[in-house]
TrEMBL record:
Membrane-topology annotation of the record: Multi-pass membrane protein
UniProt keyword terms in alphabetical order: Cell membrane, Membrane, Transmembrane, Transmembrane helix, Transport
Keyword Hydrolase (UniProt): no
Organism name: Ciceribacter naphthalenivorans
Top-rank lineage group of the source organism: Bacteria
Transmembrane segments: 12-31, 100-121, 133-157, 169-190, 230-251, 271-295
InterPro entries: BPD_transp_1_N, MetI-like, MetI-like_sf
Short name of one Pfam family: BPD_transp_1_N
GO cellular component: plasma membrane
Record bears the keyword NAD: no
Protein name in UniProt: ABC transporter permease
Length: 308
């Protein structure tokens, strides 16, 4: 078990380090922050002074070493735009993002998994076909299209919900629904497939032949064995909560991390962009690490394979 955990931790560290390196290189190649911050009509000496002040005049490898060293000391840089700590700016936006992502995740779990399980237990019925149709509709439509569609219906046509802002709880309804619809469809589809596969296994027929009540067969035998693929999808959703908020927060003018990322990329605010990307990568890696550990708990065969 110790080797199993250490292997996953090493993979997590390598992944985060690779993301940090990739983000650093891509951001430096995407454009000169001095030109974006100062504008095209600023004299060259002002541009040179700006680059020197922020260390952009140094060779790329020296900038990279300084960046990695700063991260390991807990220094995530200073915003070129606001002259404030990049981590502080990001932390100030986290509560707003969590106001959308946590309710959206809860809706995905409470609706998607039960819908998929119920459809699997009633195959070929009208409910099963309806769940499949709605699931396909949910996860095939991009979030920006879904968001605009909801704004058109509930804000423009019906006029019952605000189209943007952050003033009241009603402002969070449309972005939360937008973020949850795709996940509900994905969870419903995978839960249905996992349950159908498990229900066809011999041990399910054996449990029924022994006289166990059908609800006991489903809860005690089918659901635990169908949990592994479902846990995979849930782990991915938890890891992509922040990344998934980028488009939705931009559509609904929600002052969270996603909108901050869009603004910072447009302004070439390197420290803020790097901090957000590092946070997104860490969230996804940690969630995948937890999923791997849950795999070892749900299926001891994986621990045995890792141990050899």
């Amino acid at each position: 078990m110790i080797r199993f955990v250490l292997t996953r931790l090493l993979r997590a560290f390598i992944t985060i380090f690779a993301v940090v390196t990739f983000a650093f290189v891509v951001l430096r190649m995407s454009g000169d922050p001095a030109q974006v911050m100062l504008g095209p009509d600023v004299p060259q000496d002002a541009v040179d002074a700006f680059r020197k002040a922020w260390g952009l005049d140094q060779p790329l490898w020296m900038q990279y070493l300084a960046y990695v060293k700063a991260i390991f000391t807990g220094d995530f840089g200073v915003s070129m735009r606001d002259k404030a700590s990049a981590m502080q700016l990001v932390m100030e936006r986290i509560p707003a993002t969590l106001q959308l992502t946590i309710p959206a995740l809860v809706l995905k779990l409470l609706i998607g998994i039960p819908a998929g399980v119920y459809a699997a237990l009633h195959r070929q019925s009208a409910i099963d076909r309806g769940v499949i149709l709605l699931a396909i509709f949910g996860f095939t439509i991009p979030s920006f299209v879904m968001g605009l569609l909801l704004v058109l219906i509930f804000s423009v046509i019906l006029g019952v919900l605000p189209s943007g802002g952050h003033d009241t709880w009603m402002h969070g309804l449309l972005p939360t629904i937008t973020m949850s619809i795709g996940g509900i469809g994905i969870l419903a589809r995978f839960s249905r497939s996992a349950m159908i596969e498990v229900m066809g296994q011999p041990y399910i027929r054996t449990a029924s032949a022994k006289g166990l009540k059908w609800p006991d067969v489903v809860w005690s035998h089918a659901l635990p064995n169908a949990a592994v693929p479902i846990v995979t999808i849930v782990g991915f959703m938890v890891g992509s909560l922040i990344a998934g908020a980028v488009v939705v927060e931009s559509i609904f003018s929600w002052p969270g991390i996603g909108r901050l990322l869009v603004v910072s990329v447009a302004n070439r605010d390197l420290a803020v962009v790097q901090c957000i990307l590092l946070m997104i990568a860490a969230t996804m890696v940690i969630s995948n690490l937890i999923v791997d550990l849950l795999y070892g708990w749900l299926d001891p065969r994986l621990r045995a394979q890792t141990a050899h």
